[in-house]
Fold:
Amino acid sequence: MLASAPCALAAERFSLATATGLEAFPLKVRLVGKDSRQQLLLTATWANGSQRDVTREVAFRCADGAVAKIGADGVVQPVGSGRTIIEVVTPGKRIEIPIEVERGDSLLPVDFARDIVPILTKTGCNGGGCHGKSGGRGGFQLSLFGFDPISDFDAIVKGSRGRKISVSSPDHS
Structure:
């Protein structure tokens, strides 16, 4: 029982109630489109200079639920368009984070470089062991790790005389 006492004292000393400061990152949030998201991070500081991530220990509240919502994990998601404030509350401390949502009720058009290239990279398609290697693979070549998204788009959409993509039947492409 004596061995656990120092740990209990340390936990008590570094509780949110004894924190001397609380910082949020980012300081303001701008979301564009229905599928956008932003993770908030909260860092507490104590008198001795120690800092710790307390994101999952604080309470979040959104002033206007018709504009945005926030989960207990600190992820902000759009509900509609407009401006609101996320309030972060801890014992003795309060922070307000301004939120701006544009086109929160609609999905943005797919962007090849932002939306497709990461999929090709995650699945390894544009890696050195597949179509990203010098000379490609199976007569199809992509830039290594999506370095040149414009050429990759052309290779997928226009390469092989357009036989890789069927605009009239995209599900069978």
In short: The beta strands are 21-25, 29-32, 38-39, 41-45, 51-53, 59-62, 68-70, 75-78, 82-90, 93-102. The first strand starts at residue 21 and ends at 25. The chain has a mean pLDDT of 85.
